[in-house]
Amino acid sequence: MDDTLPTHVQTVIIGGGSIGANTAYHLTKLGHTDVVVLEQGQLTSGTTWHAAGLIVAGLLKSEAECAIYTHGRDLYANLEKETGISTGFRDVGYLQIATNEERLHEMRRVAAFMRRYGINNHEVSVKEAQDMFPIGDLSDVVGAFLIPEDGRANPVDVTMSLTKGAKNRGARFYEGVRVEEILASSGTATGIRTASGHTITAENVVICGGMWSRQLGAKHGVNLPLQAAEHYYLITESIPGLPRDLPVLEDPSTYTYYREEVGGMMLGLFEPGAAAWKLDGIPDEWQFGEIEPDWERVGPDLEKAYSRVPDTMNYGVKKLFCGPESFTPDLAPLVGPTPELRNLWVACGMNSLGILNGAGTGMVLAHWMVDGLPPIDVTGINVNRFSREMATPAFRRDRTPELLGKLFGQHYHNENYKTARNVKRSVLYDRLKQAGAFFGEGNGWEQPDWFAPTPEQAKVEKYSWYRQNWFDWHAEEHKAAREDVIVIDMTSMACFSVEGPDACALLSRLSCNDVDVEPGRVAYTAWVNERGGFEADLTVTRLSDQKYWVIVGENSAGHTEMRMRRHILDDENVVITDITAGRCQINVHGPKSRELLSRISGADLSDEGFPFMTAREIDIGYAVVMAYRVTFIGELGWELHVPANQAVQTYDLLMDAGRDLGVRNAGMQTLNSLRLEKAYRDFGIDVDNTDNPIEAGLGFAVKLDKPGGFIGREALAVIKAKGTPKNRMLQFLLKDPEPLIYGNEMIYLNGKEVGYIQVGGYGHTLGAAVGIGFAETEGPLTADVVATGQWQIEIADEKYDAIASLKPLYDPGMRKIKC
């Protein structure tokens, strides 16, 4: 076989399953035709061949998810017209059922959002659902939703049709060729070497190796956290009268999907407590392989699955199949350029949804490679989002069993993973736990979410889309921030030291705002790409002529570091160091924060002596800390960057000195509600790489006339020159104090749908739920339109009147901050 292999191509793709075929297909569609696909076995022989082929949307909660899904569904429905090979797609419909009011409420919340992006998800009566799925026992069902255009496809046929389309445009596919090594020079991938020693040089190398991807990447220091797990489905013997076009049924209460399969019924399990498979690595020779089923382990799950279709127990089991599927720590794919090697790209970690999402993922990656930028928001799937700890054997062993059930079960807005916790902890963790902290997780960090009166009460009694047991405690934290003083452990914020003669040049090139400032000045800025889309929002602080600190949220740490490193020019001297682990960030905020800090520091903390947006070293007890006078909550306050070995002492001093001032610990829920009252933006949550600072209301931090310009300046100048945008980010406050908003709720202006809420929380000071989101109108969205329009927010099929504002509804003049 190696005798026929080329020695040089533009792009070599490793892996000939659904993802590799989709990537090749979409690259060639864009005219990028010098593509070779190398498959170590036969095409589809890894996991593609045994996939269930479901083309069903689930509950999608982002524009990106909707775009990826709808692209694949539409492609598979029409691909035969191009290639002459059927994908086996049949739009039999997709039913989701709810057996409790909480699940029904979640489905109603999400359905309107999905309809906005072309997915016809609508509620049907339980009787209608029963009529469509007559073999099911729906006696305990309280509601159902149907997407009639969804259905199923044949995974092997899909891959072969894609392969034919790619070949027709010049791509070449080779079977029986295992890639042994990714060749690299000076931090750049240059090609591959096969197991037999053949070398192919290439301008791009793409890992589409499915469950083998992690171990291939690890050989070259590339972090790809994914792990194979046992995945089961059962197929019954033929059932007389079973309709061939029976819709696919999904039931989170049994963690099972149901569909017809050659006259019988398929029961596909996504059971809680799944089993990881081959932690040490997947055998290279694994082809069309099956795992011996563990009947004893999955027996209880099968019993639960049968309870939805009890009549099927009268028919024999034709097959209990167990095969591996790969899963990532957050159940989102790994896509994009790798931080470790230039020109090395990845599309893997499909979480058992490789057929469903393969086409959309291949489309995104192809455009990213050819155009230089992705066509959709990729903050949730970018391969650079994970830290290395999440690829360790221990993490994969502990997290994987939870993932299948998490993918298919019932969801809540504030639910965290229970496994593989305590990966990263602040040195204040024990103090905060003793103080009653309930911890959530953020990029591996344990973060205090809210505080209970005692450690024993720090638990969620019942997850809900309505008020939970901690709601009033959170309200007290929020009130303390507005009236007294709070302390928040923000150590999870990533901190990078950027030093060298060219540090200023690098950061100026990346930043929309002016960062060539006097030492001691803090600059809030966005980083954007060539289209003007966000790549980060963060603070850049100049500490000396050649030294800066860059501080960014933990969810953006990997992307921020990668962006800095990728933009250092060959002749520039810049050293970037991640110093997060060496310091503890303690935020002190509230009207009494100056009084509290003055009790334990000799520094001049007056407005004149320590102005807003400045940074300097101050003493706190025995410690010397870097203090920033900034805020993300809209109150007077400071960020204290404390050496880790002095953080506990500093925290104790703050709490002891502030007792009579009403000092309270506060968590992430309170940080969110406070910042939403001030309408502060957060990259990766409410703005992403498809949004720009002008429309997001951050034009004040964009200096189009700064010397030397910046990446994306021209694009933002064009947007600015158009005048008042049609699409603008607004703040919304419900007039009714009872409903809650979290994100994805539709926005209406004068009865017309114009956008959706990006993120929401409860504004305890403003007295009702508050959120921010983009609204788009036919003409300019002027201040007058905002002020005079009739605004409503739709929550689970009900519309609620709301106030909209371009300016923060809380302290728009910033008097409380600059005092």
TrEMBL record:
Q: What class of enzyme is it?
A: transferase
Can you give the residue ranges of the Aminomethyltransferase C-terminal domain? 728-811
- EC annotation from Swiss-Prot or TrEMBL: 2.1.2.10
Domain GCVT N-terminal positions: 428-706
Q: Which Pfam families does the protein's record reference? A: DAO, FAO_M, GCV_T, GCV_T_C
InterPro entries reported in the protein's UniProt record? FAD-dep_OxRdtase, FAD/NAD-bd_sf, FAO_M, GcvT/YgfZ/DmdA, GcvT/YgfZ_C, GcvT_C, GCVT_N, TrmE/GcvT-like
- Gene Ontology MF: a single term: oxidoreductase activity
**What residues does the FAD dependent oxidoreductase central domain cover?**
371-426
> What Gene Ontology biological process does one annotation of this record name?
methylation
FAD dependent oxidoreductase domain residues are: 12-368
- Which of UniProt's keywords are assigned here? Methyltransferase, Oxidoreductase, Transferase
Which family is this sequence assigned to?
Belongs to the GcvT family.
Q: What name does UniProt use for this protein?
A: Aminomethyltransferase
